[in-house]
Amino acid sequence: MKRYAHITGWGKYAPEKILTNDDLSQMVDTSDEWIRTRTGIKTRHIVGEGETTATMSVRAAQAALDVANVTPDQIELIIVATSSPDYLTPSTACLVQNSLGAMRAGAFDLAAGCSGFVYGLGVASALIESGVYDTVLVIGAETVSNFVNWSDRETCVLFGDGAGAVVLQAKEVPGGVLSFVLGADGSGAELLYVPAGGTRQPTSAETVAQGLHFLRMNGRAVFRFAVNIMPRASRQVCEQAGLSLDDIELFIPHQANDRILQASARALNIPTERMFSNLEHYGNTSAASVPIALCEAIEAGLIKRGDHLVMVGFGAGLTWAAAAIQWSMPWPVPGRPWWRKLLRWLYYRWASLRSWTLRVLRGFDSTLRQSEEESQPPKQEKEDAMK
Ligand code: ACO
User: Is 69 assigned a catalytic role?
Assistant: First the structure.
């Protein structure tokens, strides 16, 4: 029996703190007028105290699990698409796995810039269709604000923080992810990159003094790449799914710049209303932008059961990715009884208690071993005593 990967749950999280164009004009030489007309952005969300890529991922994931009516122990794999992880190692996906109490799940991060979430969707759907997994959680989450140079007006006005998540589940009903396209062109690596902090240029006082730990971008070159690749990848993914562009009720593109969305709509010969945009409230949230846009399009009632969607992203790498999807979920989602919400709440409390207990036990264990080792006579003394 053929298996299909359906999106059965979705959720988003954006930090409370909002940064307006006027706020930015107090920080760098820019204006609300320039930002609005050149990018379409009005506000963006920025992380507050204690918020990270992992904590935002968990909030988005909990919302998605609730919609899908899936418990964390049913998840078999967690993919977190991000270029702004909590640590270089371990992966943010492992932190999410721990916070959710997803004890049966494997977990890894996926770094494909702003295309990361759609990349993750492709990987997850292939693993589901091939029968390896039944339930996969895919998250796109970013704290780009921590990598942005807040005195560089060419980049700091563009980005925002946030997270979006979907639950993908195996079904025998045709639909879900119909096709996907993944692409890369590493010759454009330096068009959008963070020069230092990796193995090529490890962090040092010098790299920090030179600001090499900040995001650098050749905006014009990325713009040209985007307006060429978004229509191309969209056409290709439709062709692979046996659909025409007219069959697509809604395009959900990576939200980088309104002018890129309009140019892509023109190139595809579709009205701009079919190119979903929520950029003005979020800015570019990199890998989080497509899942956040998906959630907002659903909540706005723009996606009905049976509709065909194309999600399409482009970004650092350079990378691009597109997925054609046949939507199979109702909206609004039927309400959950109070006791189910309570059970979920208790599960997450239990997961954090379990994590805390394991840490404490590991601490005891290593202290115990250390004091055991210290109380042993040194090896040489032992050998002498045996002679
Ligand atoms: N405020 C005021 N003026 C500005 C600002 C600003 N914030 N930023 C640049 N300018 C100035 C420039 O200095 C330049 O001045 P000059 O003519 O005196 O030299 C002028 O505005 C025009 O600059 P351009 O770079 O030509 O502006 P452009 O119209 O190309 O817009 C932008 C710049 C918004 C960055 C655009 O190129 C863009 O959106 N590129 C794509 C970026 C993108 O999508 N990045 C994300 C990729 S996804 C990922 O993986 C993260």
Answer: no
